[in-house]
Amino acid sequence: MASGVGVNPDCLNAFQELKLGKKTRYIIFTLSPDNTEVVVEKKSESHDYEQFMADLPENECRWAIYDFEFEKPDGGRRNKITFYSWSPDDAKIKHKMLFASSKDALRRSLVGIAAEIQGTDYSEVSHESVFEKVSKGN
Amino acid sequence: MVNYGGDEVSALVIDIGTSSIRAGYAGDDNPKAIIPTSYGYLPDAPTTTEDVTMGEAGQNGPSLWRDGMRVENPMTNGLIQDFEPIPPLLNHALSEVMRCSASEHPVLVTEAPWNTAANRERMAEIMFEEFQVPAFYIANTGVLNAFAAGKGTALVIDVGQSTASVTPVVDGFVLRKGLQYSALPQLVHAHAKHLLTSPTNKRPGIQLLPHQLIATKTPVDAGALPRFQVREDRVAGTTDSWKLWYEAREVDEWIQSVAGVLDQGWNDQAALARGARHYEFPTGYNYYFNGMERYSVGEQFFTHSPQLVASNPNLPKTIPALVSASMNACDPDMRQVLFGNIVLIGGGSLFSGFADRLHNEIERQTPHAKFHAPGNPTERRYGGWLGGSILASLGTFHQLWISKEEWQEHGKAIVGQRCK
Asked: ADF-H domain: which residues (chain A) (predicted)?
């Protein structure tokens, strides 16, 4: 079951840029004002994770791609492209429904995602809990 | 075909449950028509379908006493078992209560996660052939509830009037192998009825006589024998099915006003400490029910007493048992994310103390569990309808509707293809 919402080509371009250009650190996606397609809200090169968390609004839903970089205990560096579904409990029910039912369209058009995070509050998207998830088994 | 552009779809959303049928316009945050699913009929009438007594929205269906009237419910375990009364029931909700014509609106119907293919095709047939709808879609309540909570992946715990279910939803699809349901609410109900009607050392068994059969009564003190006179003229014309239906309603009302669940697990002292609560029955009999009686009812959702287990090997699974059975059937990788996204839904979950207790039970097993239980009772009771209402109101959703032309061209097979 899906909402039938489309994905703006800009989303793909931004994602390719992040994947291949290695410059963009994260992308925030949202729905266009008329709720017909997914658009890019923000691209950022900031390495500050706090900044990224601040870009997830407290009571509105978003999706995000974060190029998660971490170091293994043996010193190897890893990059994991992580997909976030951000849906805080305080968001309007219509938005939660819209974002949840449209996620699949966006998620399927982005190839090469290593991990997925479903977050309803800031503790679920914090650096530690994401790190715990993406570093597993690698 | 109706031309729907933008968000002006004006679709209808219908959610059929065991206790009530909810119908309304997509985009609204409340169903316009809520009618009881139980209906009354007179067996001597020429065709049963034409003489169906149903309540107005918000009223209580067959509560009007009629000579020889029987009461039926088309649902069994959350599924439609008897399709014959469905068209008149829906017709009542749409034409009589909402005053609209289904032939002018696309219709979205919800279904239980364990619905059968034959059942949903029958529903599509009724909608297209009898109601002449221009477009149709059938959506799964498990997925709708997960989406309405903003989650593509969730463990949906739905406690209804007849059935409690646990549905793992992953990326918008139901994991069929993890789907678990049982007739637990019926056991809770039976327990409450048994508790009321059997005598204890402090009080006699309580007569669940409907007020429609009582001519006069005089107020009595709490615990004293009731003094009332039965309407003799109505006794002969009262059918067993109507009486059973009424008794079930009386028990439900008692449960809703008096019973509860202890949030920390069963403990005699804790139950007694909750104090007594007063309730008066239609006969005029009134009594202060103590904590043991009040809380033993809700306890049935979580634990079965050893005596009960010994006497009946086929008990419906308790909620914690349903959750662990469902989890054991799922991939270990999925368990953590499902436990992190539990959605509690259904009118039965509004039982006083239920959400807290379930939270405690699950947290004992899995410390990482995260709970989402809508605080708003409308969202809890009509979550499935509400999800359908939002989905059907989206302009972009219109490409997914099954149109009448497609139905005529492809027949039943299209329902399974389109509505996954």
From this structure: 4-135
